[in-house]
């Protein structure tokens, strides 16, 4: 079974190489031999393991970071750049976290091999490692990215939690990702959380009806109302996977919750209701190969590139000095 899963993923990687002209020189094992005998991916993984042992929620944080980075200028670490009007300052990115993990990994690889490993690759490697530590598959990431030179808040235009399924499909299609890719990538919510403010309308005044969203399980509405009181000054968080036994595990439980009308965000619940995606949700909820398929979708996400010039940053938070003058 494991050998077959590895073969399927290897074939998927080869297919991505054939059909994605913007991918450039990305390949699995890109850094092998480029830093002497040093195991670059192993160095990054050790940093992630150390952080994960302190805080298991870093998996959700890194998944979100990679998605927010790749969906803007491609996977070029532009989200890491500091600046008054950088991507970090855009509203959807104000709650992105995990930057210290990337900094620590960058420091570790620079000590072994200065000026060779990009911050963009570190994001993708670190995310894969966190997914693996949380019960997902250890999918072979492709590397060889360059770090972007531009980071502007005005470029951040991410699909939001109130998007309809068709709007979300359109947004993903613009990035070359299919509706099935989208459903799998939203599976990252299996370890995520959401602030009450993002779904509170579903609990009290859905679409100005004065009533809760009728597609949400009434028992869940009652539970969430206790966590998210109306007009509360505290914006609490709740797990996107309401199965408390697997809320920190990368698995297909999220999809099973959607089928039980226990989705938190509107876009999540509509995946299981809309004719464009409900069959995919049902198939994933019953499947035994979620880890493999999720890994394939993450590889496709990681292949997004803008084609703009790039560099290997010395610091993930700033372009190299010669560029910034």
TrEMBL record:
Active-site residues annotated for this sequence: 68 (proton acceptor)
In what residue span(s) does the Plant heme peroxidase family profile domain sit? 25-320
Cellular compartments annotated: Secreted
Q: For binding Ca(2+) 1, which residues are annotated in this chain's numbering? A: 69, 72, 74, 76, 78, 87
Q: Domain of life, per the record?
A: Eukaryota
For binding substrate, which residues are annotated in this chain's numbering?
159
Residues annotated as binding heme b are 189
User: Where along the chain is Ca(2+) 2 bound?
Assistant: 190, 241, 251
Instruction: Show the Gene3D superfamilies listed in the entry.
Output: 1.10.520.10, Peroxidase, domain 2
Give the Enzyme Commission number: 1.11.1.7
Q: Which GO terms describe its cellular component?
A: extracellular region
Protein name per Swiss-Prot or TrEMBL = Peroxidase
Q: What taxonomic classification does the UniProt entry list for its organism?
A: Eukaryota, Viridiplantae, Streptophyta, Embryophyta, Tracheophyta
């Amino acid at each position: 079974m494991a050998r077959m899963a590895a073969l399927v993923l290897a074939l998927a990687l080869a297919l991505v190489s054939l059909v994605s002209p913007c991918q450039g020189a990305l390949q699995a094992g890109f850094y092998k031999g480029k830093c002497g005998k040093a195991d670059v991916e192993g160095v990054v993984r050790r940093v992630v393991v150390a952080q994960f042992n302190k805080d298991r929620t870093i998996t959700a944080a890194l998944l979100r970071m990679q998605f927010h980075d790749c969906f803007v200028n491609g996977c070029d670490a532009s989200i890491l750049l500091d600046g008054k009007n950088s991507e970090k300052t855009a509203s959807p990115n104000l709650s992105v976290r995990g930057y210290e993990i990337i900094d620590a990994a960058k420091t570790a690889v620079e000590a072994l091999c200065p000026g060779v490993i990009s911050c963009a690759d570190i994001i993708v490697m670190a995310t894969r490692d966190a997914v693996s530590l949380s019960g997902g598959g250890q999918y072979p990431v492709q590397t060889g990215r360059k770090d972007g030179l531009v980071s502007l808040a005005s470029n951040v235009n991410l699909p939001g939690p109130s998007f309809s399924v068709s709007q979300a499909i359109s947004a993903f299609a613009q990035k070359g990702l299919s509706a099935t890719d989208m459903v799998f990538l939203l599976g990252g919510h299996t370890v995520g959380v959401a602030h009450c403010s993002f779904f509170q309308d579903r609990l009290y005044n859905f679409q100005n009806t004065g009533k809760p969203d009728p597609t949400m399980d009434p028992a869940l509405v009652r539970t969430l109302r206790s966590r998210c009181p109306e007009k509360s000054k505290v914006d609490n968080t709740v797990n996107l996977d309401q199965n408390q036994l697997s809320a920190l595990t990368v698995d297909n439980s999220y999809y099973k919750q959607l089928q039980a009308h226990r989705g938190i965000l509107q876009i999540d619940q509509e995946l299981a209701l809309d004719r464009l995606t409900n069959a995919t949700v049902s198939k994933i909820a019953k499947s035994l190969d979620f880890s493999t398929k999720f890994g394939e979708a993450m590889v496709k996400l990681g292949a997004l590139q803008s084609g703009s010039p790039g560099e290997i940053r010395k610091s993930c938070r700033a372009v190299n000095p010669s560029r910034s003058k």
